[in-house]
Amino acid sequence: MESLAERKAEILDEFMMFDDWMQKYEHIIELGKELPLIDEQYKTEEHLIKGCQSRVWLHANEGDAGLVHFTADSDAIITKGLIALMIRYMGDLPAKDVAQADMGFIQEIGLQDHLSPTRSNGLVSMVKQMKLYGMALAAKQSS
Amino acid sequence: MQEKTMDIPAFDVAHVRQEFPILERKVNGQPLVYFDNAATVQKPQSVIDALVHYYSHYNANIHRGVHSLAQEATQAYEDARKTIQQHINAEHAHEIIFTMGTTDAINLVMQSWGRSELHQGDTVLISALEHHSNMVPWHLLKQEKGIHIEVIPIHEDGSLNMEAYAELLQNGVKLVCVNHVSNALGSINPIKKMVQLAHEAGAKTMIDGAQALPHAKVDVRDLNADFYAFSGHKVYGPTGIGILYGKEALLNQMPPWRGGGEMIASVTYQSSTYNTLPHKFEAGTPNIAGGIVLGSAIDFVNTLGVENIERHEAQLLNYLVEKAAHIDGLKVYGTAKEKAGVFSFLVDGTHPYDVGTLLDQMGVAVRTGHHCAEPLMNHFGIPGTIRASFACYNTFEEVDVFVHSLERALKMLR
């Protein structure tokens, strides 16, 4: 299993290749296609993260070897790509790593605007939600 | 909205653009194409200068001071009130109440007129096109007093169903509360006719003119509206200032809403008597700079000529409608015959958020989402639209850039 730091380096390398915004967004759109999709039964109000515009559904559970497993979906394709990126970074890791994940790489790949609360795309709440789940699971596992 | 005069002077958009310093900006490395004017318009240099001039030269609290600065500031504030009175052809300057904006003006009517005149079982009639700001205040009153809220339906093109309106009026409606121009679709509602019908049915009228003032001549006496509200920032003025126009007799009958300084005649420890109009509704130190600068903004509009602005924006809209017709899968929301400055649309197989995000990368600012008109979006069964909206400084070249950028974005998304 790769560590958060290794995953971060890999994502940074990948985004370094792009010369312009178009390539970058085309890549994000491609990433969206690899998103581990949420099971239809979880696409409910309860799993809906309310952003102003695009809808985001997120589900988390304790997967193999006690790791945090995420699935998600969105009706907007750029949002979907960004979620896929978050899950690639934080998914299937020990709960305490998820809870403490450093999100600094977002800025380094020039996508910080998407995580600003003013974007109202639900991503900020989603990252918060992912970390909260990590925290809750870590607490449960240590008790 | 009014008969156009034939002797319109030349309107030179290149010259107009020079008045707006922000238009020189680049966004994401591209020249800014600002098509989010229905949300707020950019400000001309004369308005920016008026704001700086006030704070640099005669900032003082108004109405009470005997010193020169206070006199000057009071004079400028009250002159602005007169400018606005003349602009919308109100009978008296004291029928012009300074508020924080349209939302604040509607809340004033709800809190003062609504809470004293509306009782359990009374009906307030709104339209399916309303902005949340013209719904939520009435929801509050519904919770408090048990009033009814009825809704005038719309046709598929986004125009109001006037037959249904006439019928709804027969059910003891006390207040009709509609927008003059829809912010989400751009439809212009037949306000003069609607006010006439409302009055025949014994109802008062509250018109939300936030989207009308920037685009057309508004004459409150001709419309015969009881209340008419608009915002400064949508008509080239600053944020945080707006106007409630009300007929003198009505405003006089209404109790004050906010209490404080300025709005009183005399005060003892136990009670107070209230000042006359317009001060009765302007408690506390007002937005002095905002009021004065709104006057400058109205001067700017009148220098250009509101008919010229209206004609220019209509030409831009026609041009965009024509060009957009070639885009596969593009559906326009709001195709009423009478429209002002708004192009609201969706494209098959894409989400407004995605389109808006990519357009921003190309320097094009539009609004995406429900435009604070969620019930209207639900009516169409859509999460929201992409909205391009015009102001006096937009150009045909910008429409070209917009269409080209949109096509590029769609190519990436579909």
Would you write up a description of this structure?
The complex is a heterodimer of chains A (143) and B (414). Chain A contains six helices and three strands. Chain A has helices at residues 4-16, 21-32, 77-90, 95-100, 105-108, 123-142, and strands at 48-49, 56-62, 68-74. In chain A, strand 1 (48-49) and strand 2 form a beta hairpin. The two termini of chain A are 25 Å apart. The relative contact order of chain A is 0.18. The mean pLDDT of chain A is 88. With 414 residues, chain B is α/β, with parallel strands linked by helices. Chain B has two domains: 13-37 and 305-413, Aspartate Aminotransferase, domain 1 (Alpha-Beta Complex), CATH 3.90.1150.10; 48-302, Type I PLP-dependent aspartate aminotransferase-like (Major domain) (Aspartate Aminotransferase, domain 2, 3-Layer(aba) Sandwich), CATH 3.40.640. In chain B, the strands form five sheets. Chain B has a seven-stranded mixed beta sheet with strand order 4-10-9-8-7-5-6, with helices on both faces. A four-stranded antiparallel beta sheet of chain B has the order 13-14-17-16, covered by helices on one side. In chain B, strand 5 (123-127), helix 5 and strand 6 form a beta-alpha-beta unit. The model of chain B is unreliable at 1-6 (pLDDT under 50).
